[in-house]
Write a structure and sequence with these properties.
Layout (H helix, E strand, L loop, with lengths): L8 H10 L11 H11 L1 E3 L11 H6 L14 H16 L3 E4 L5 E4 L4 H8 L6 H4 L2 H13 L1 E3 H8 L4 H13 L3 E7 L5 E6 H4 L1 H5 L4 H16 L1 E2 L3 H6 L3 H13 L3 E5 L2 E4 H41 L8
Antiparallel strand pairs: 1-3, 2-3, 4-6, 5-6, 7-9, 8-9
Length: 315
């Protein structure tokens, strides 16, 4: 099995800052979580450090090596992440759903048109690409607009729990349905609604697929600094050929440099990192110059001090 190329230390430090993998910037509120997702463009919800990409859970932990425990119900960081997710869904400022490969993700509004261009489904294609159960659930939501889980199962006729969950995942992956609220009393339930009801402008915006691939790649690279082979595909759910098309488009416009096949580095972020290193070197140079100046002054003063207090030969 081919080993992955190591990620340079300066890139890991860069990701610590951008992905909030440090204690000084860890997330504690829904407002901070929304700021974080707006900054990075998209993020997973409950993945840990064993998978690449920005993650709300890792940002809540505030450390690079965060690993989800086996008993998540008793883990305070996992519980806080879950509660923040519920609050973000209720606030409705960010897109949240199970997208490609069934992975729960948050999208900043500016990224919705690009993800929709790749994974979204036009109404004319629904009979051909959606299962009968998914179509039945979608008909209910288009009629009722918002429906709780139990009522949606009854009205759609999809009574089997596993089949219902699979159909809902199918609709979320096609960016047609989203959870719009979560309630725990009198019993736990999601409220489901149409995605276009929450984000009408973003989901109606038409974007060419190649442009969408480029912008998704740009969004990841701007917060990651560098991407290794297969990383963009794993983070977003894109196929590896399409992830490569997005990255090569960034190279063509001068935004990124291909260091090796599948290995891309953002030029803008590279300049930022180098600027930080140059700034440190400049500060060290200034300190050295100041020390040299002090030494020179002391060398000038010492002869004068040596003559102070000597007797006058003319006396």
């Amino acid at each position: 099995m081919r080993s992955k190329p190591p990620i340079p230390a300066e890139i890991e430090d860069f990701r610590d800052e951008r992905w909030r993998r440090e204690g000084a910037r860890q997330i504690e509120s829904a407002f901070q979580a929304e700021q974080f997702i707006e900054e990075v463009g998209f993020a997973a919800c409950l993945i840990d450090s064993r998978r690449p990409g920005p993650s709300l859970y890792v940002a809540v932990c505030g450390r690079r090596d965060a690993v989800m425990p086996r008993n998540v119900q008793k883990d305070p960081e996992a519980s806080l992440t879950w509660l923040l997710k519920d609050e973000i869904v209720r606030r409705g400022n960010l897109y949240y759903a199970k997208l490609a490969n069934g992975k729960a993700m948050f999208l900043a509004p500016r990224m919705i048109p690009f993800f929709n261009a790749v994974w979204g489904l036009r109404r004319a294609d629904e009979p051909r690409r959606l299962s009968k159960r998914a179509q039945a659930i979608l008909r209910v939501l288009r009629r009722e607009w918002e429906v709780g889980t139990a009522d949606l199962r009854d009205e759609s006729g999809v009574k089997n729990r596993a089949a219902f969950t699979k159909a809902l995942d199918e609709l979320q992956a096609a960016m047609l349905v989203v959870p719009s609220a979560v309630y725990y009393e009198p019993k736990f339930t999601y409220i489901w609604s149409l995605g276009i009801g929450r984000f009408p402008d973003a989901l109606r915006k038409r974007v060419a697929r190649d442009a969408a691939l480029r912008e998704i790649a740009r969004c990841f690279l701007s917060s990651a600094g560098l991407t290794i082979p297969g990383e963009l595909a794993r983070v977003t759910g894109l196929s590896r050929p399409e992830a490569g098309r997005g990255n090569r488009a960034l190279v063509a416009e001068g935004y990124a440099t291909m260091l090796a096949p599948g290995l891309y580095r953002a030029n803008a972020e590279l300049r930022t990192i180098r600027h930080s290193d140059d700034l440190v070197d400049s500060r060290e140079s200034i300190v050295d110059s100041r020390e040299s100046l002090v030494d020179s002054r002391e060398a000038l003063i010492e002869p004068e001090l040596a003559t102070v207090g000597e007797p006058d030969d003319r006396s």
